[in-house]
Amino acid sequence: MRQVTVYAFWDDEARVWVAESADVPGLVTEAETIEALTEKIQNLIPELMSLAGKEHALTDVHLRMERHLEMAV
């Protein structure tokens, strides 16, 4: 089983979650909700791995999320 790590972070200015991964060439996507982002990632990984000529039948995806809150003091 191939393990990939996807990093997701909240872009407060654009109001979207952004995901990228060094393990999946070309993976950069965004969505308004983490659920929508997860669905996009699940669809994109097999396509991008296939384009890169890498086996993708069984992939264990680790999603790491970060959301920083800015506060006025």
Give the biggest sheet.
Answer: 4 strands, mixed
**Cα radius of gyration in angstroms:** 14 Å
Would you tell me the overall average pLDDT? 87
Top-tier CATH class: Alpha Beta
The tally of beta strands, per DSSP, is: 4
Care to describe what's here?
With 73 residues, the protein is α+β, with helices and mostly antiparallel strands. It has a single domain, classed as TTHA1013/TTHA0281-like (2-Layer Sandwich). It is built from 1 helix and 4 strands, in the order βββαβ. A 4-stranded mixed sheet has the order 3-2-1-4, with helices on one face. β1 and β2 form a beta hairpin. The longest helix has 18 residues. It starts with a strand and ends in a 7-residue tail after the last strand. The model has no long low-confidence stretch (mean pLDDT 87).
Short structural summary:
Helix content is 25%, strand content 37%. With 73 residues, the protein is of the alpha+beta class. The model has no long low-confidence stretch (mean pLDDT 87).
Give the helix/strand layout.
Blueprint: E1 2-11, E2 16-20, E3 28-31, H1 34-51, E4 59-66
Parallel strand pairs: 1-4
Antiparallel strand pairs: 1-2, 2-3
Keywords:
TTHA1013/TTHA0281-like, alpha+beta, 73 residues
